[in-house]
Amino acid sequence: MPIKIKKVLLNTLIVVITMSVFLLLTPINKAFAKKVTPEFDAHTQEKQAVKSYLMGKFNPSKHPAFAKVPRKYASRSGFYLREEALDAYKKMAKAARKEGVKLIIRSATRNFDYQKRIWERKWRAQKKSRSAKNKALHILKLSSMPSTSRHHWGTEVDLNAFNNKWFETGRGLKLYKWLTKNAENYGFSRPYTQKGKQRPTGYNEEKWHWSYTPLSIPMIRDARLVLNDASITGFSGSQTAKQIGVVKKYILGVSQSCQ
Predict the structure, then answer these.
(1) Which CA distances in Å does 257 have to 33, 104, 126?
(2) Same domain assignment for residues 99 and 11
(3) Which residues contact 92 (CB under 8 A, 6 or more apart)?
(4) How many CB atoms sit inside 10 A of residue 243's CB?
């Protein structure tokens, strides 16, 4: 048999064998794909669920992990916290009361829609001559962008007064000293301490804001992984999130005790 014919037959045989192997393996490949895809989808869905939660895209009154704050612990009815945070807060408030200190929740969980209403009101009040970035920075002195507030998480409480000076004299000072000494025993810490070398970015100091760290520390670590400035949308001036670097400077710009 001529050499050329032998080569043609050999090449044909190789092609036939290759196609046969491929056809035999195809069901295995399909089975493998069926096995892997659901796991990948589940991971993606879980990540999206975490992201949505951190951004406040839920109703705390209908969320199974939240509980309503009893009126006696708050300035008004209608506040919600994560159950674990509320239980710890109740113990802390009772302990404080025994020492003549009355803790009052002035604000707790605020979801995306709630925070958006606050933001939009303040946005409309800005001078029209200001650039969008400067408007946002001005609001950020005291209020969070929707999707970026720790109050979305159900772990944060604002106590007694929204004024640092109130905590510097009289009843306010007594309360602040008690919290500084005892709050950590119940899992609470201050995320917005005085800005400086230890905390160069983020919101200004808030002596009234306390965080339940057994839950909020894992959440801020999740935030570091899943949140980015591009995902901060859905309200006036949201395009400035990327210009400002809101995730790094504000969400992550907290005291060491809350990281």
Answers:
(1) 44, 23, 34
(2) no
(3) 103, 182, 183, 185, 186, 188
(4) 14
135: in domain = yes
Give pLDDT tens digits for 157-178.
Answer: 999 999 999 999 999 999 999 9
How far apart are the C-alpha atoms of 147 and 111, rounded to whole Å?
8
48 found inside a domain? no
List pLDDT tens digits, range 34-87: 343 445 566 788 899 999 999 999 999 999 999 999 999 999 999 999 999 999
Helix (H) or strand (E) holding 80: strand 80-82
Residue 58's SS3 state is coil
Tokens found for residue 17: 């064998």
pLDDT value of position 42: 64
For residue 68, the cross-strand partners are: 80
